Automatic annotation (TrEMBL):
Chain positions recorded as S-adenosyl-L-methionine binding sites: 113, 144, 165, 210
Organism: Actinidia chinensis var. chinensis
Gene from which the chain derives: COQ3
One GO CC term, this protein: extrinsic component of mitochondrial inner membrane
SUBUNIT field: Component of a multi-subunit COQ enzyme complex.
EC number: 2.1.1.64, 2.1.1.-, 2.1.1.114
Protein name: Ubiquinone biosynthesis O-methyltransferase, mitochondrial
GO biological process: methylation
Length: 321
């Protein structure tokens, strides 16, 4: 009996609950969407609901200048926005450059992410990865740039960088920080969305969105916007977290609840994509995934490294068809 209860609880946590004969139990808000529902959502291009928890306010009180200004945007320009997710980032925007703060995992992962980006972009664009400014001549957009943790080293590597984020506070912090160094002060930061840049007919040699897709309202639409921003035969790089048992244990239970690396509730397990799902939605957006790598953490050294293990954190490099 106890083991059945435990098994049912785990299944519910993972969204693997079969149809319940009693439609009122358990309450709907306790159940994550089933894998079947998630696949249906991904493969049918239907927009994701803003939140799976109806007890959350329909519109969190953040539309007061903290996020992208909707008045100047068409409906299509905001289709990737998930208000509840943006509210989480607006709340901790001041901490972007605190290397020991909530964004510590991104700071620590950054050198490893940059290794992947430098090697894939240099190979694709036939550039020398060993020179001082290997990305010289490339126009890159960093979508969901946050405080600019990635935009800045891309600029130092010689790229012409545009950083965009839907949270106004993030863009302000990014601007202030980039202005501290002449090598990064040329970065163009804008509070906007990828969809809005598409409307403006912007195009880039490389479009990068790291740790963003799990926070957007509709991953398939988001990838279509990323593809539309990429020049023909240009590059797209996306990193995210796999929807696996291991990611539930490490990226949520360990990182948020045991080690307190991230604020509780930073990630919704059901919003993660498997590598197969990401490859599929990229393919449907005319981007062919060419290379993928996992990030693994070594608790002894406190460092991340690239690996074939894509069971938790992974990064994909694709080219526009
Ligand atoms: C986990 S942070 C990643 C920041 C940065 N890419 C990095 O890896 O260092 C996710 C960022 O995406 C932004 N974001 C979420 N949805 C967005 C959207 N639809 N359009 C633009 N930015 C978005 C958030 O405001 C936040 O700054």
């Amino acid at each position: 009996m106890a083991s059945k209860l435990l098994r049912n609880t785990i299944h519910r946590m993972l969204g693997l609950v079969p149809k319940n004969p009693n439609p009122n139990f358990p309450p709907k808000r306790l159940i994550a969407p089933t894998c079947e529902a998630l696949s249906a959502r991904l493969y049918s291009d239907v927009a994701r609901p803003v939140s799976i928890d109806p007890s959350l306010p329909e519109k969190p009180p953040i539309d007061n200048g903290t996020t992208v200004d909707r008045k100047n945007l068409n409906k299509g320009s905001t289709s990737s926005l998930n208000e509840a997710e943006l509210a989480k980032f607006a709340a901790i925007a001041e901490t972007w450059w605190d290397a020991e703060g909530p964004f510590k995992p991104l700071h620590v992962m950054n050198p490893t992410r940059l290794t992947f980006i430098r090697s894939t972009l240099c190979r694709h664009f036939r550039k020398n990865p060993y020179c001082a400014r290997p990305l010289e001549g490339l126009k890159i957009v960093d979508v969901g740039c946050g405080g600019g943790i990635l935009s800045e080293p891309l600029a130092r590597m010689g790229a012409t960088v545009t950083g965009v984020d839907a949270v106004e506070k993030n863009i302000k912090i990014a601007r202030l920080h980039a202005d501290l160094d002449p090598l990064t002060s040329a970065i163009e930061y804008r509070c906007t969305t990828a969809e809005k840049l598409v409307e403006e007919h912007k195009e880039f040699d490389a479009v990068i969105a790291l740790e963003v897709i799990e926070h957007v309202a509709d991953p398939a639409e988001f990838c279509k916007s990323l593809a539309a921003l990429t020049v023909s035969d240009g590059a797209t790089v996306i990193s995210t977290i796999n929807r696996s048992m291991r990611s539930y244990a490490t990226a949520i239970i360990a990182a948020e609840y045991l080690l307190h690396w991230l604020p509780k509730g930073t990630h919704q397990w059901s919003s993660f994509l498997t590598p197969e799902e990401l490859v599929l939605i990229l393919q449907r957006a005319s981007i062919t995934a060419q290379e993928m790598a996992g990030f693994v953490y070594n608790p002894l050294t406190g460092r991340w490294s690239l690996s074939d293990d894509i069971s938790v954190n992974f990064i994909a490099f694709g080219t526009k068809n």
